[in-house]
């Protein structure tokens, strides 16, 4: 993962997009602090889908008054992928 200042990224945008397309991740910084991340479009979609799934699980847990630990949720998710 490369870290690059926003000012420099402006002049290298085409190159950075090409690297992101090939699977690399690029972090944009302002004054040395990370402010944005460039990832493949599929990654962003996958992350949104995961966030929505987590939101729905939390809502279900709340409605059913379930006390399930994060470790149990992770195990269930891993089992679902197998």
Question: Tags for this entry?
Answer:
YefM-like fold, three-stranded mixed β-sheet, alpha+beta, 82 residues
Description:
This protein is α+β, with helices and mostly antiparallel strands and 82 residues long. Helices cover 62% and strands 18% of the residues. The chain folds into two domains: 38 residues, YefM-like domain (YefM-like fold, 3-Layer(aba) Sandwich), CATH 3.40.1620.10; 40 residues. A three-stranded mixed sheet has the order 1-2-3. Strand 2 and strand 3 form a beta hairpin. The longest helix has 24 residues. The mean pLDDT is 87.
Please give the radius of gyration in angstroms.
18 Å
Overall tally of structural domains: 2
H/E topology pattern: EHHEEHH
- Report the sheet-strand fraction: 15-25%
Low-confidence stretches: none
Judged by helices, strands and strand pairing, the structural class is alpha+beta
What is the count of DSSP helices, taking H or I runs of 4+ residues? 4
pLDDT averaged residue by residue: 87
In one word, what is the shape?
elongated
Order of the strands making up the biggest sheet: 1-2-3
Termini separation comes to: 29 Å
Major sheet details: 3 strands, mixed
Q: Count the beta strands.
A: 3
Q: Name the helicity range.
A: 55-70%
Topology record:
Elements: E1 2-5, H1 6-11, H2 13-21, E2 26-30, E3 33-38, H3 41-64, H4 70-81
Parallel strand pairs: 1-2
Antiparallel strand pairs: 2-3
Quick description:
With 82 residues, this protein is α+β, with helices and mostly antiparallel strands.
